[in-house]
Amino acid sequence: VQLQASGGGLVQAGGSLTLSCAPAGIIYSSDSMGWYRQAPGKQREMVATIQSADDTTTYADAVKGRFTVSRGYTKNMVKLQMNNLKPEDSGVYYCNAANAREFVWKPARDFWGKGTQVTVSS
Asked: Cα separation of 19 and 28, whole Å?
C-alpha cells in the first residue's frame, strides 16, 4: 500500500505547515502511524508517532511543544501540525505505517510514503 503525503513546502522560520498522509489502498491494521524526516547527508529520524491501540503519541525531543501528530477522519490517516518551524526542521518528511497489514492474512510490515519536502528559510 502506498502512503500519500502532502502539505510540504517552503516557509519562513517561525511559520507553520500541516502535513497529511492517507493510504492509497486498504490498511487492515497497524501498530502505529507516524512521521519521519531525513535531511541531506543525515539518517532518517523519527519525528512523531501515534499508537493505533490508544492514540498515545511520541515525539522527538527536537519537536516537542511545536509539532502535533493526530489522526485524520479515518484511523489510517495521519496529520502533522508543525508550528514555529526552524531551519533545522528542513528535510523530506515521510509517512509511515508500522507493522501494518493490508489484509488479515498478509504478513505485517512497514509501509512508507514517497515523502514531501519541507524547507524552512531563515
From this structure: 23
Element (H, E) at 72: none
- Residue pair 102/28 in contact (Cβ under 8 Å)? The answer is yes
Amino acid letter, residue 89: D
Q: Which of 45-49, 64-68, 70-74 has the lowest mean pLDDT?
A: 70-74
pLDDT digits (tens, 9 = 90+) for 93-104: 999 999 999 888
Q: What's the grid cell of residue 51? A: 499508537
Q: Name 45's bridge partners.
A: 37
Tell me if 42 sits within 8 A of 60, measured CB to CB.
Answer: no
Q: CA 84, CA 24: separation in Å to the nearest integer?
A: 30
* 34-54 residue pLDDT tens: 999 999 999 999 999 999 999
Helix, strand, coil percentages for the chain (3-state, nearest 5): 5, 55, 40
CB of 32 closer than 8 Å to CB of 50 = yes
